[in-house]
Design goal:
The chain is α/β, with parallel strands linked by helices. The chain has eight helices and seven strands, in the order H-H-H-E-H-E-H-E-E-H-E-H-E-E-H. The chain has helices spanning 2-12, 18-34, 46-58, 82-88, 101-113, 145-152, 170-183, 220-225; strands at 70-74, 93-98, 119-122, 134-140, 156-167, 186-196, 199-208. Strands 3-2-1-4-5-7-6 form a seven-stranded mixed beta sheet, sandwiched between helices. Helix 1 (2-12) packs parallel to helix 3 (46-58) and helix 3 packs across helix 4. It is globular and about 45 Å long.
């Protein structure tokens, strides 16, 4: 895990101290161990965790300046991309948001044992009251972009950004979500590309230009049934 993480970070141009690398390994080992009794990830081989989880998420640090910023990870699951961002840029004020209580409890206990500060919240995104409080909202593999935008953009301050991690076929989702993003006060700024394990990854970056209208986000059933 350590060797793979170091080589992937060198390839991506991301610098980690020895202490940071050790923190990543601790978190990776805790993830693999807990996954034996709780369904956290389908990726359980140490080198694959380092590459497909850690390096993939750390690539976001090349897409925006996270130093000293407040960040909410919407639908964080087992902590991705939020935990790698925090370990890679410790100045981040991180909130991890997920609807599944037992995952959030595991994250809170694991991070506390590592002396990593993060707010771990068990709630649905559309019901969590933290409107326009964050510099960045980030999300990976949660929903199609037209749905995800309504869950994430309301959390972002005007002037902040929503970063959506997507695979190579992101253009279709971007086209599909343009109306939603505009209605929610956002604007597509750019797309960053990078490669992980031979596959193209994309980060779609949206700037929050106006406050999100108060009627958004709607209830999730409505969001899913009638995406903007």
């Amino acid at each position: 895990m350590e060797q793979t993480l170091r080589s992937e970070c060198a390839r991506l141009g991301i610098a980690l101290t020895d202490a940071q690398v050790q923190q990543f390994c601790r978190f990776g080992q805790a993830l693999i161990e807990k996954n034996k009794v709780m369904n956290l990830t389908a990726i359980t081989e140490p080198q694959a965790v380092a590459k497909l989880h850690f390096a993939d998420c750390l690539a976001l640090l090349q897409a925006a300046d996270f130093h000293g910023k407040s960040v909410i990870d919407v639908g964080c699951g087992a902590g991705f991309p939020g935990v790698p961002l925090k370990l890679g840029e410790p100045t981040i004020a991180l909130t991890l948001l997920d609807s599944l209580q037992k995952r959030v409890v595991w994250l809170r206990e694991t991070l506390e044992s590592m002396d990593v500060q993060a707010q771990c919240v068990a709630a649905r995104a559309e019901e969590y009251d933290a409107r326009e409080q964050f510099d960045f909202a980030v999300s990976r593999a949660v929903a199609r972009l037209n749905v995800l935008a309504e869950l994430c953009l309301p959390f972002v301050k005007v002037g902040g950004c929503f970063l959506a991690m997507k695979a190579a076929a992101a253009d279709e989702e971007l086209s599909e979500a343009k109306r939603a993003v505009k209605l929610l006060g956002g604007q597509w700024e750019r797309t960053e590309e990078y490669e992980i394990d031979g596959a193209c990854r994309r980060v779609l970056i949206f700037r929050k230009t106006h406050p999100t209208p108060k009627q958004y986000p709607r209830r999730f059933a409505k969001i899913k049934q009638q995406p903007l």
